[in-house]
Amino acid sequence: DVKLRMANGSIQRPEGMISAHNFTIHGVDFNLTFVITRSSNQVAYECLLGRSFLQVSLLVMDFGNDTIYMR
After folding, report:
1. What is the pTM of this model?
2. Which of 14, 26, 41, 51 is most solvent-facing, going by the fewest CB within 10 Å?
3. Residue 11 CB partners (closer than 8 Å, separation 6+)
4. SS3 annotation, the chain
5. Residues 18-70: pLDDT tens digits?
6. 33, 1, 6, 30: which is closest to 17 by C-alpha?
7. How far apart are CA 34 and CA 2, in angstroms?
8. 49-54 CB contacts, 8 Å cutoff, 24+ apart
9. What does the pLDDT look like over 10-30, one tens digit per residue?
């Protein structure tokens, strides 16, 4: 039984998962699993990226400019 703790501390159960898909982003290969959740109309995001993906991919999140880029 998978549970997700969201940034606001709430717990959500996923609607489903898309497991082990290979992607290449800027020449870097990733094997990713996506967790699908139901969101309310009050969320300000379209996609959540997991901490492990952010660390492995060396992504930099620039909230001031609303951008994400790879180092």
Report:
1. 0.48
2. 41
3. 3, 4, 5
4. CCCEECCCCCEECCCEEEEEEEEEECCEEEEEEEEECCCCCCCCCCCCCCHHHHHHHCEEEECCCCEEEEC
5. 887 888 877 878 887 888 877 766 666 666 666 667 777 777 888 888 887 77
6. 33
7. 13
8. none
9. 888 888 888 878 888 778 788
